[in-house]
């Protein structure tokens, strides 16, 4: 039987249901917020992603819908209540870039999903140190040159930018690869995944379903790259309303005739599809300018000029040189550390280093300036190393 840690800032031990251990073998924590008790972990695989909720008002266990990425197996964890909205879950013996997770229990996103799904909902969001640069949302009518501009950016700065690979129900064009240009998907599969909350946004565009999965954005962030999303205006609006703080750029054609010429010369759509895309382009151009979503509007007349303007917006001119994100390699959390919470700071101390020696380093995890959250990463974690303590 693994370690059981109880952390009850608001609840009395008497309030606890006695069948807790019976229901959850293995490592787990039980954390009270208001009238709810969150039991985290205890699955056979030792993964803490398994969550159950005990509602003291009705005296019953509830199995909530658990959104967000599945956590890997863990040798135990510590749960720290940060607010009525979220619990910080610190994994023991995990790699340094995978030790801090947030279980959101009442954030605006969780509230919205609870209403939508009409059931109890919690959501996992992985904690990321530092502030990753904001993702970039690029929108504009079909044929305006979004893909061309994004390809140029990715080619010139391969280790800086990563493309968010969308899902779509449309058929692949010649040369398009599954998993690279899009995840080509059956409609019923995609609709099901949308219902299960796996998408950050989705929209019906030109008669097909398109959407950005949470995994698509997280895969780019996890690779330490800045995410680029090529999505339509409806999708941009949804992203703007989400916790993903992004830069929104709208691309316009110099004239409508030029847009039509580019669409035709690309030669990837039938005449009927071209007509549909051109009809939709009128509304998109109107919305792009007036929706209040886009802070930058670029006209793609001469390609090179537009590309330079795009780089200016992204701060890539003026001696920019590509740098990889700071390595976390030399940071090592000791196995079996202890945790203490002091307002918006979490102290991590003790445990054993990888050399088998007791650790005397004190780590301070500052959670005072968190950004983002489910669906997606929680950024802004600051980890300071203090010590070894004997030297202070
Ligand atoms: P989108 O991704 O917005 O649908 P594409 O990037 O596929 O558009 O561009 C549509 C077509 O227009 C392509 O054939 C591309 O080579 C061409 N194109 C893109 N930008 C320009 C430009 N500034 N001038 C002329 N042709 C362009
Ligand atoms: P295409 O079929 O030409 O690749 O894309 C058609 C339109 O769908 C483009 O305007 C493109 O920006 C948009 N689109 C592509 N992926 C997504 C997505 O994930 N979500 C939304 N909302 N739109 C998308």
Characterization of the model:
This protein is α/β, with parallel strands linked by helices and 392 residues long. The protein has two domains: 13-131 and 324-391, no CATH class; 136-318, Rossmann fold, CATH 3.40.50. 24% of the residues lie in helices and 30% in strands. The protein has nine helices and 24 strands. The strands form four sheets. Strands 6, 7, 8, 9, 10, 20, 21, 22, 23 and 24 form a ten-stranded mixed sheet that branches. Strands 1-2-3-4-5 form a five-stranded mixed sheet, with no helix packed on it. The chain is globular and about 70 Å long. It starts with a strand and ends in a 6-residue tail after the last strand. Mean pLDDT is 85; it is low at 1-15 and 18-25. Residues 140, 142-148, 262, 265-266, 300, 303 line the site of adenosine-5'-diphosphate (ADP).
Low-confidence stretches: 1-15, 18-25
Q: Quick one: how many beta strands?
A: 24
- The SS-based structural class is alpha/beta
Question: What bound compounds does this protein have?
Answer: adenosine-5'-diphosphate, guanosine-5'-monophosphate
- On the 0 to 100 scale, the average pLDDT is 85
Q: What is the total number of structural domains?
A: 2
Q: Quote the beta fraction.
A: 25-35%
The protein's oligomeric status is single chain
Helix content: 10-25%
* Biggest β-sheet strands, sense, barrel: 10 strands, mixed
Shape: globular
Radius of gyration: 24 Å
| Structure annotation, total helices | 9
